[in-house]
Structures are given as C-alpha cells and as structure tokens.
Amino acid sequence: MDHNFQKDIAGCGLTGLISKKRERVSGSIIAKSLTLMNDRGNGLGAGYAAYGIYPDFADFYAFHIMYDVQSARFSVEEYIKEHFHVEKVEEIPTTPVKEIAINPLLVRYFISPSKGSITGDGNGEDFVVNAIMKINSEIDGAYVFSSGKNMGAFKGVGNPSVIAEFFRLDEYEGHIWTGHTRFPTNTPGWWGGAHPFTLLDWSIVHNGEISSYGINKRYLEMFGYKLALLTDTEVVAYLFDLLIRRHGLDVATACTILAAPFWKDIEDLDADEKEAITALRQTYSSALLNGPFSLLFGHQNGLVGINDRIKLRPLVAATKDDMVYMASEESAIRAICPAPDTVWAPRAGEPVIVELEN
Amino acid sequence: MFKSQAPPEYRATIDTDKCIRCKRCIQNCGWSVYDWGGDRVQIETSKCVRCLRCYHYCPTEAIEILKEETRFKENGYWSYNHIRNIKRQAETGGIPLTGMGCDREGTILFDHLMLDACQVTNPSIDPLREPMELKTFLGKKPSKLEFTKGKDGKRKLATKMPPNLELAAPIIFSPMSYGSISLNAQKVLARTAKECGILMNTGEGGLHEDLKPYTSNIIVQVASGRFGVNPEYLNAGVAVEIKIGQGAKPGIGGHLPGEKIPLEVAKARMIPVGTDALSPAPQHDIYSIEDLRQLIYAIKETTNYKPVSVKIATVHNVAAIASGIVRAGADIVYLDGFRGGTGAAPGIIRDHLGIPIEHALAAVDDRLRQEGIRNEASIVAAGGIRSAADAAKAIALGADCVAIGTAALMTMGCTLCGKCYTGNCSWGITTQRPELTVRLDPEVYAVRLSNLIRAWVHELMEVLGALGVNAIESLRGSRERLRGVGLDAQTLDMLGVKPAGR
Ligand code: SF4
Ligand code: SF4
Q1: Candidates B122, B130, B138, partner chain A, best to mutate (most A CBs within 10 A)
Q2: Burial class, B144, CB count within 10 angstroms (exposed 0-12 / middle 13-18 / buried 19+)
Q3: In angstroms, rounded to a whole number, what is the distance separating the alpha carbons of residues A331 and A33?
C-alpha cells in the first residue's frame, strides 16, 4: 500500500454563475468576476470550467489533455486510437501572452468509446474513467484535465486575466461557468495543479483545506480510485463521482454526506429525515469533508455551492432573473451583476443547489 | 523454617513514633502482611505486593512501602525476575502466575507516534465554542445507501440498516467477568457506562441479577466455558461477544479457582459452589472459521440479529484472522493487544506471546480495506490503552473505538500491583472476599470512573480541535495525521505512517 502521499495546501478565491434558462454567457464575464479577486491568489494558478460550450460535439467526451513532452502525446494517442472512436483532434486555441513564458502542449479530442471496448457499467462511463486514470497515472508527462461532454476546463499557471486571455475565453459561450484563482503555499506551479478539477461532467473549484484528507483518500481507494494529484480537491471530485454516479445518490444527498449536519441538529428533524441522515452519517462517515472549505460543483444539470459544516471559508450567493451567482466575495458578483435581486450568505453546510430548467 | 530463596520484593515499614496503634493497616491489607503483636504492628514483609492500600489508609502517614534493597547482584543479562522465577520454580515446580498486563519494557509504538495540529493554512477549532462530535456507532454498515422519493419529493431511506451500537464517545469497557472481579467492581462499570452513554461487557461470568437495570449498556460475552449462557442471557444485553482469545493470554484458557466461586458467583455462572471454573483453551465447538460462522449465526438467530462481536488476541497472523472473522459474519472485531490485562495468566504466556495492538490494528485496518470489507465490521482496539492520547492514536490508525480495562480499575484504587490472581486485592476489585469487596462502594467509585471518561472525552475533543476537525470520524483511519518519531522505515511502512519531518 502506498502511504507516501504529500499534501497540497492552498488558499483561494472562486466564482461561478448559471443561467437556469440555459442562456449562454461569454467567458469574458466570468473572467471579469474572477479577476476582481486577484489578491486571493498569488499568480500560481487560475482556471475556468464551462458547460454548454461544445454544442456541435455534445455527444462526445471532450478530452482536454496537457503534455509536458511530445513523446507523451504519441503514447496517449496510440492508446486513445486503440480504445476510442476519434471524431476530432485539435490543439486548444491559445494566444501568446508575455506572462506565460512556457506552457504545456494543449490538445483536445472529441471521442467516444469504440464498440467492444466497453466493460463495466455498460454506459461506458466506468470505461472512460478507467482510461483517464490510466493516462494520468501511467503515461508520464500527460494529464487529462477535462473529460466531460459539452463542457471543458481551461487552466494553468498565471493570474485569472492572463489565463483567460491565453485560452481566449471570450470566444466561448456557456450556460454554467466557474472560475478559480489560487494561492498555493507549497507546490511549484504545475499547470495540472490549478483548478477546476474535473472528472467526466463533474468540475470542482475549491477554496480550503480538507483536514480529513487522509481518511477521505483511504476511503476512495477502497473503491479503486487512484489519487494521483496529491491535492485535497481531487478527493472532492472523486467523492462526488462515487456518491452521485456510482452510488446513484442525488446531489442534495451527496451534499448531506460531505457537509453533514451536526447530531444535535439531526435530533430535531422529522422521523424520516432523522433516519435518513443518521444512516448517511453511519454509512458515509469516511466521506465527511472536515476542515475549512467552500466549493462550487458544476455538473451537466446544474451548479452547487457549499461550505464546510461550520463555515470556515467564505461563500456568497446572489440571484438576478434566471441567473444565480456564487463567489468567495460579494464584490466578485457585483462586478458582473451590479444590481442583483437577492444576495445572501449561505449558512454553514447548507448547499445552494441550482438546477437547469428543462 | 526454611526461608525461601526468592527474596521479598518490597519492604513494608511503619514508623513506630508516628504509629498510633489504630490497627487500620491490619484491617486493610488483603495479603495479611500485618498482625497485632501486643504493643505494636508486626510486619511479614515477604507477603507485601505493594498495593499501597495500607499506605493510603494510615491516618498518620507512618507507613512506607519501599523497594527491597537486598537484591541479587546486578546482571545485565540475568534480570532480577529471571533469577527470582528460577528460585520460585525450584521451590514449587509450578508456573509463575501474573496479573494485569505485560510489564516488560520495550518499544511502545504509541509513544513514538505524534499527532498533527493546524497552523495558518487551516484553522484549529475551539471545542469550548464549537460542537465537537464523538458519537460512534459499532456494527456493520452497508457499503452504500438507497433512497426512494416520496410524493412530497422528500427522500426516504430504502436500505435496511444493520443494527448498530451507539456510543457517546469512542470508548468502551473491556470484558471483565464477575468472578475475576467483584460484583461491586462490575457495578461501577455498569453505572458509569449508563451515565456516560458507553458500554460495559460482562466477560465470561454470566450476568448477575443486580446488573439487569443496566442491560441497555451491556455486552454479554460467550467464551469457551459457556458460563451463565442461556437464551435469556444472550438476549439480555445490546450485543453478544464471542471471546476467542485475550491479549494477555492468547491461546490458553482460564482457571478461576474454587475459592473464588462463592454462591453468588456460582449462580451467575450456573455452576456448583466451590468448583473450579475452567475455561478451555479453545472453544470446543470452534475448530475452524466455518465453525465460528455457525456460532455467530446461531447467536444471531437466538437474539433476533443483535450485533455480534468477536474478540481475539493479536497474534502474528491477525490480519488474515480478522478478515476471516468479518467474512464469517461478525459485526465487530475486538483486537486485544499483548499488553492487555488479565486477572491471572502464566507469566511466560503474558510476556512472550502475541503482538502489540498498534501493529495489529494497522494490519487489520489495511487488510479489511484492501479486501473492500472495512464497512462490514467495526474495529475495537484494546490491550494497553493508557490515556486519551493512546485512544486518539489508535483511532487514527483505524480503530472505531478503544476498550479500556486496567485504566478503569485504576479509578477504583488499583495500583497495578499485578497480584490479582491471588484473590486478595485489598481494593476489593479482583477478589470475592466479602470483607474486601464491601470497600468498593459502586456509587462512590462510579463517580470517579465517570470523571475519567469525561476527562478523556474532553481531551479527545481538544485533540480534534487542534486537528481542525469536529467529528471523530474525520480522525478515524486518518493516518496522515500521525507522524513517527524514531521508528525504522519498515515499522513506519507497516503502520502506514510517515516519518516526522515529511
Ligand atoms: S500488600 Fe498492600 S496493604 Fe498489604 S502491606 Fe503491602 S502495600 Fe500495604
Ligand atoms: S486489581 Fe487489585 S490485585 Fe489486581 S493489580 Fe489492581 S490492586 Fe493489584
């Protein structure tokens, strides 16, 4: 058993928005919001996730892969061609910016598992997850940083505005956006270390430190997850994957597990809820995220914001018409939505769950 | 008279100037060290076991119990105990007995493990201001849950939850039978368990009538002697424990001499008064793992599926054994390390068989995780838990809760003299002599034991707060929060703990 994991410590700022009516919004909007919180990061990492940006390829998994070395690309493409149908391959369009001296090779692939390859859950998701794990853990210098359908992550070492300009974010339009700026205290700038972290359609941006990391990691390992990135946030992404995709729980229940109510409050609930949450806390005790965090969790059908159970990191939410905004600071919301209808600070452990309308 | 070549270990002394001739020492000593000599107390120091009862009850502080200075010549290889045991064996031809846990020095891993704390990047939490949760459930957990949605859109649990034991804190009392300890000592445990929301365990001695009001905080034990076992007994508590082995004496049975079987003990054990109560080494209906499975399920059938715990001594192959126990259907695996206490055990067994709880716990937790069955059973770690710090470290290594025996007895007066097997315990704990047991007032001593539990609860909360977490489950199995100091690479690897500085 490999016990020799290292922990990544980081402070951060985050922001997100969602149009419930699926109105698509330019990436320049979220970049403006995030850039306002420049001082919550230290220029060592920023990133964005967007949903609804690849409508023409909505049926294909969009793999965003970064390569540190050219040879890794050969290995990965050989692997992909063997197991997937490849609809399209292209380098992710970027603009040279002076703050970024060197960057990894960034390539995206629109792919679907080739027939006959699929084992596991039948709909191919397990197969795709295994492929991602394999590339990330076995092919040196290659890293899949985004893999969902009709969504994508864009991230790297730099300030929010630099990363947005580099990835030409203003050329994308999406109905859900999240953004993150990072203040790592130990790791050298590695492009893969920036947020969001994604797995299939899930994307996480996260501010905080998971003090329960050790047990969360060991719990996930029991289910076959390989934690390659040595960060807290990876744990969060995989927990959502386990709870929602593999265990079939709904988003609200997953949130109840990750930021569980206190026993003293569970006492006061009605019989059904009391029974449900008691069972959740017994069964999923190792999935409780303990320690300071606020995070935004994007998925195909919506956006969720949640705090730790005693709210040790900030999170503010606001609405305007069909739009919902969530960010570390109210100012980051007002920068792009000067006159919101409502603004509130979600309570500790109480998720803000926003779903897209059909 | 032939004087034993095994010299006395202690020298009981009375300052005759201070002594007021109250004779309390004579009354208090369970080992008859003192006698009245007409004008002064006479002392037969070779009988003294240094239990310190007389010392505490002497009103003028006249008594001092010293280490006997006349000793064999020091030898770096032949220790005092080696020589002394040979002398005793030469005289008796017997096996030297011991009580309490192994007292030999040696690497104590708990003392080489340091817990983490928060600084800057994550805040610590003040347990005096914020809720700090220690609530613990022992028993099988499903690997996942299913829900249905009601018409009102609310979730409703669809999975049937296996029965679990709820503890207010991750501490229980280890099994100590009526017979090995006095009924009053058991009452102290039972009252405290109820008061503190935790559990006591009958041990293999049946259930005395007087404990019936406390059964919602009692685990009943079934061991190789099957003393006091019938369907009513099995159903009396909240769970049943099958005892395979005990850390202090793995692989051997028990022998409670007839002198310790007065009427009350005999009744609870369902055996005749004054007969020796022999617990065979193995359970004669368990010669393999499949037999254990049958017994587990026989008990479950009898009790309408109460949780079943299986207690084993931590021996070399403990991980594989524990895995087998879990697969055989146990809800709880109770691991008793080699430092665990006993009422009586041959010294050779107590001091040389089995492995430390720290190693065993790490190995078992790892194995159950590798096999994907960690949720199938809870792990109780016992055998030498001396403090809340040991408890916290055991939990970080992977235990769901710890069990304490010796520490609990200390609150009743025990000074770890290690002579429990004589049945003379001056503190009224490991004795059935009525004039001794009457000293142990359950009401008074339950307050002291409850104080201890409360103190450890506060200490555990402080540790959690420093770690920046507010629920015990975030420490459980979180070995990332431990670092080893002065341990070799192999030990660290085995424990799954990084060296300090990394
Ligand atoms: S055995 Fe205990 S009570 Fe008796 S003399 Fe020694 S210390 Fe005192
Ligand atoms: S229980 Fe009594 S006899 Fe046993 S070690 Fe403690 S004081 Fe000594």
Answers
A1: B122
A2: middle
A3: 8
Full DSSP string of A183-221: EESSS---GGGSSPEEETTEEEEEEE--TTHHHHHHHHH
Q: Which CATH architecture has domain A13-53+150-355?
A: 4-Layer Sandwich (3.60)
Q: Does this model's pTM top 0.90? A: yes
Give the Cα separation of B8 and B295 in Å (integer). 47
| Tokens of residue B91, six digits | 């005289």
Q: What is the strand order of the sheet A61-67 is part of?
A: A84-91, A105-113, A61-67, A142-146
Domain locations in chain A?
Answer: 13-53+150-355
Alpha-carbon distance B408 to nearest alpha carbon in chain A (angstroms) = 28
* Nearest alpha carbon to residue B338 among B274, B246, B473: B246
Domains B10-94 and B165-499 in one fold: no
Q: Does residue B409 have its Cβ closer than 6 Å to ligand 2?
A: yes
Superfamily of domain B165-499: Aldolase class I (3.20.20.70)
Structure tokens at B6: 């095994």
Q: Which two tokens stand for residue A327?
A: 């960010």
Cross-chain Cβ contact A309/B142 below 8 Å: no
Task: Tell me the β-bridge partners of A204.
Answer: A197, A297
CA distance A58 to B463: 50
Nearest to A310 among B137, B470, B479 (CB): B470
Residue-level pLDDT, tens digit, chain A, 358 residues: 344 444 455 568 999 999 999 999 999 999 999 999 888 877 788 999 999 999 999 999 999 999 999 999 999 999 999 999 999 999 999 999 999 988 999 999 999 998 777 665 667 888 998 899 899 889 999 999 999 999 999 999 999 999 999 999 999 999 999 999 987 765 556 888 888 999 899 999 988 888 999 999 999 999 988 876 667 788 898 999 999 999 999 999 999 999 999 999 999 999 999 999 999 999 999 999 999 999 999 999 999 999 999 998 999 999 999 999 999 999 999 999 999 999 999 999 999 999 999 8
Q: Token digits for B429?
A: 């704990």
Tell how far the Cα of B45 is from the centroid of ligand 1, in angstroms: 9
The closest residue, in CA terms, to atom 4 on ligand 2 is B420
Ligand nearest to the CA of B431: 2
The CATH number assigned to the domain with range B10-94 reads 3.30.70.20
Compute chain B's Rg from CA coordinates: 24
Ligand with smallest separation from the Cα of B413: 2
**Domain spans in chain B, listed from the N-terminal domain onward:** 10-94, 165-499
Ligand 2 midpoint to CA B341 (Å): 11
Give burial (CB, 10 Å; 0-12/13-18/19+) of A61.
buried
Kind of pairing between the strands at B63-67 and B10-14: antiparallel
Q: Which residues are paired to A295 by β-bridges?
A: A206, A306
Cβ A288–B471 below 8 Å, yes or no? Answer: yes
B17 conformational bin, left if phi > 0, alpha if psi -120 to 50, beta if neither: alpha
- Please state the ipTM of this predicted complex: 0.92
For A85-99, write each residue's pLDDT tens digit: 999 999 999 999 999
Nearest-CA distance B297 → chain A (Å): 23
Query: Does A337 qualify as catalytic in the annotation?
Result: no
Q: State which ligand 2 atom lies nearest to the alpha carbon of B30.
A: 3
Q: Which two tokens stand for residue B209?
A: 């009538």
For residue B382, the cross-strand partners are B336, B403
* Contact residues, chain A, for B129 at CB < 8 Å: none
How many whole angstroms separate alpha carbon B448 and alpha carbon B413?
A: 10
Q: Which two tokens stand for residue A102?
A: 């060197």
Sign of CA dihedral B300, B303, B306, B308: negative
Catalytic residue among A8, A10, A12, A216: A12
